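U., I forgot to send this yesterday:
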Amino acid sequence: MNLFHRIRGVLVAFSLVFILTVTSACAGAVQTDRTSYQPSGTASYNSYNQLERGDTAVGQNFADWVVQTAHGLVKDAYVRDDDKLGVVISPQVKPNEVRNLARSLAQGFHRNFPNRDLNVLMYAPDKKLILKARYDNTTKQIEYQPVG
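Result:
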């Protein structure tokens, strides 16, 4: 059974990387008018509240795209300052798959927002922060910090 879970985790990660790679070029190209968006100066990325998906049009589009292409693995997402991606996972994501999903999201996020350090914040289905992944643009490495 453990081998099955490990294979499933790897397949989830690879499928998300494939999806992010194939369609990431489209995410930044679409610009929509978001006249109903009211910026929130008090939004904190340490706790998830009911937030808009992006504080820029490109961020909004990327967060929308993540939710739409995650095939049910992601319930909600947001982008702040074009360097923070917050993701609420669905209950079908197993605890041992969260890190692989964070890595895949960080890689796709980097393709859309290159040449900068990035943070991916993973939230449980109950919207509690469970993992922080930091992509260091200088070393091209991802550092993980479990929360809680």
